[in-house]
Amino acid sequence: MTERLRVRVDPDKCQGHARCKALAPELFELDEYGNAHEAGDGTVPPGLEDKAWLAKSNCPEIAIDVIEE
Ligand code: F3S
């Protein structure tokens, strides 16, 4: 069985590069300053796991955590 993933953005590290939103628009929202936070409670819907890892590896500030639950 596939593990469930959850994404989390560290607001202290995020600098608004928005690559996460470009790569995984289903998983991230941007606020009015362009900083990201996880959509909903951060749970990654089935089928979007690759996008979660892609967003994590493409954030220049290393602000994204992917948690395996
Ligand atoms: Fe922030 Fe990284 Fe996304 S800096 S906007 S979490 S790509």
TrEMBL record:
Official protein name in the record: Ferredoxin
Gene3D superfamilies: 3.30.70.20
Family annotation (InterPro entries): Fe-S_cluster_ET
Molecular function, one GO term: metal ion binding
Keywords, comma-separated and alphabetical: Electron transport, Iron, Iron-sulfur, Metal-binding, Transport
Superkingdom of origin: Bacteria
SUPFAM superfamilies to which the protein is assigned, alphabetical: 4Fe-4S ferredoxins
